[in-house]
Amino acid sequence: MVRDPGTAIKPVEATNQDGERVTVSFMEPTVLYFYPRDDTPGCTVESTEFDDHLTAYQDAGVEVYGVSTDDAESHGAFAQKEGLDVSLLADPDAVIAEAFDVPVTNGATARTTFVCARQQVCGVYEGVQPEGHASAVLADMRQMSLVE
Question: What is the pLDDT of residues 37-74, one digit of tens each?
Fold first, then answer.
């Protein structure tokens, strides 16, 4: 099961909020956070906090991607409204969610975060509380020695 640390994962492709095709290789340290819907209270908190910490993640060599089943147009409107620079990947057919065994209920993914590196899962957060999550994940990555 992909939720188990050490499980090998394959690269994924999706369209981001700018309409660009993005390939996530998971070779470098990567955070992939699944959130239910654009422009909802918890998802806004989670995405803006990852965006607020984006420079710290980048300085540590970590790629960060948000994923939901909303389409790229919805992601674009959400990113523009909130001033987000974090890359939001559209997964309208839940292909990425399925690849990561993330439950989808009524078309929305469960709030789940994956920490990955060297094409394997290093950590999984389920039932995420949005507030403070972005800073906690970066601190945990340091504890795991994935970043300095």
Answer: 999 999 999 999 999 999 999 999 999 999 999 999 99
| The two three-digit tokens of residue 38, written as one number | 């654009």
Structure tokens at 32: 């992939």
CA distance 77 to 63: 22
Residues recorded for the chain: 148
Q: How far apart are CA 89 and CA 68, in angstroms?
A: 7
Query: 9, 43, 137, 141: which one is catalytic?
Result: 43
The answer to whether 15 touches 74, Cβ cutoff 8 Å, is no
Tell me whether residue 43 is one of the annotated catalytic residues: yes
SS (H, E, C) 49-82: HHHHCHHHHHHCCCEEEEEECCCHHHHHHHHHHH
pTM of structure: 0.96
- Is 134 in a helix, a strand, or coil? helix
Listing DSSP states for 83-103 in one string gives T--SEEEE-TT-HHHHHTT--
94 is written with which tokens?
A: 């839940």
Residue 16 token pair: 């981001």
Tell me how crowded residue 89 is: count the other CB atoms within 10 A of its CB: 22
